[in-house]
Design brief:
Keywords: Membrane, Transmembrane, Transmembrane helix. Pfam families: DUF218. The chain is an alpha/beta fold and 258 residues long. It contains eight helices and five strands. It folds into two domains: 62 residues; 157 residues, 3-Layer(aba) Sandwich (Rossmann fold), CATH 3.40.50.620. The longest helix is centred in the first third of the chain and has 27 residues. The radius of gyration is 22 Å and the shape is elongated. The model has no long low-confidence stretch (mean pLDDT 87).
Length: 258
Amino acid sequence: MNIKKLINLVILFLGVLGVLNFFILTWVNPVFNFGAFIILIAGICLIITAILRINGKTHIFSIKNKIIRRVFALLAGLLALSFVLIQGLIIFYAQEDDNIEEADCMIILGAGLIGDYIPLTLQYRLDKGIEYLNKNPDLKVIVTGGQGPGETVTEAFAMEKYLINNGVDASRIIKEDKATSTFENFKFSKEILDEINGEEAHKIIVVTNNFHMFRSKMIAERVGFTVYRLPTKTNTRVLISCHVREYFAVIKSFIFDK
């Protein structure tokens, strides 16, 4: 098999993988996922590209104008470079901090519910929080998340119920049930802590999935928190989708979440 045929097969394989990923993720969690949708579109584009290449019609994508061709090449290069750099940061920050015991409060970030059902992504966060709270009985915890599309209760309500059902005393739990984004999770949580403890430099433990930790830390520090990371794992069936979605979310948060 020559190199050209091998490249065509790889492109076709990646395209099919992207489409399958979308349907698997939709089956696991029927709530719309932007990251999965992006991968679906990319998969379809790759399949079309592979079919055109196999049929010898790659000239459709050739750009004769040298300036336009170079601009497209530069943009593609910058896109690829930014993707690699951001993914590197996501992986680097998906580690637990060593001096986590210095924190004053824990914040567990909400994630999409299915009705009032807690999916694995959020369950991992809650279980990680419970594990640490059991070892530190004096620590309070904020559960943060409002009610979004496809949810019959607020994320904070479902999270509080889960913690109580798993042995966390209700008096230790503070509910923030208005937030609709990661930025609002921290903004509204800080307002609550400012009201309770005064406007000071709050030291918090952030509990979220590993892919989400870099952006969470960035936003929390912008809001005014000192952050200690307590990441948890991610469902492997949605890991690729989460990383792709997070790339776009990091760019959005870097520009707008201030």
